Amino acid sequence: QLRTPLAGIKWSLDMLRKEERGALNAEQKDLMEKTFRTAEHMADLVNDLLDASRIEEGRFGYTFLTGDLTPLIQKIVDALKPTAEARNLHFTFEPAAAPLPAVSFDASKLELAVQNIVDNAIKYTMPQGSVTIKLRPEKSSLFLIVEDTGIGIPEKNKKFIFNKFFRGENAIRYQTEGSGLGLYIAKSIVEKHNGTITFESEENKGSVFMIQLP
């Protein structure tokens, strides 16, 4: 009931902004672009709220398969690369030098978790900064590492960073839009994979998020 009307609004706005129903003047086109982006943000917010609700109610079903994680991470990198380039960021993926051990994961759920983390890194890194994604095997674990040179996390905010709806003070100042649900959802998904998610960060000096999977 929430998604359907939003999908209709986005579809109509997309047709108008692409001038499929007639030409727009510069002012109209700018207004249409802003309205479309607002509708996209609303759709993202609704999706986050629904995902959080399903997690809390135990309805966020998982289907685990065993395989190589590299293609999934490459898919996420390819999807977010245009956004990173639009922000003039140095965006790189460093896969492991040797073949990775197989891990058990739900592709769609883990994609959502990793995408939330990488999207945050892009969103909160200033132009000319860098975001680097690495895959590293270590003993009986596989580590996915997301490093950025962004705004970092204030010390007093660190203990709340995975809380539902929480956003750091500097994050709100830098980027007014955001649900505060991305890291909450990511942590829930990683823990369902019997993994852990940790981070190291210093305000104004960037962050490193690490997902460890068995």
Question: Please, could you describe this protein's structure?
Answer:
With 214 residues, the protein is an alpha+beta fold. It has 6 helices and 7 strands; from the N terminus they run ααβαββαββααββ. It has helices spanning 3-17, 26-56, 70-86, 107-123, 169-174, 182-192, and strands spanning 65-67, 90-94, 103-105, 130-138, 141-148, 196-202, 206-213. The strands form 2 sheets. The protein has a 5-stranded mixed β-sheet with strand order 2-4-5-7-6, with helices on one face. Helix 2 packs across helix 6 (182-192). The protein is globular and about 60 Å long. 26% of the residues are buried. The mean pLDDT is 92.
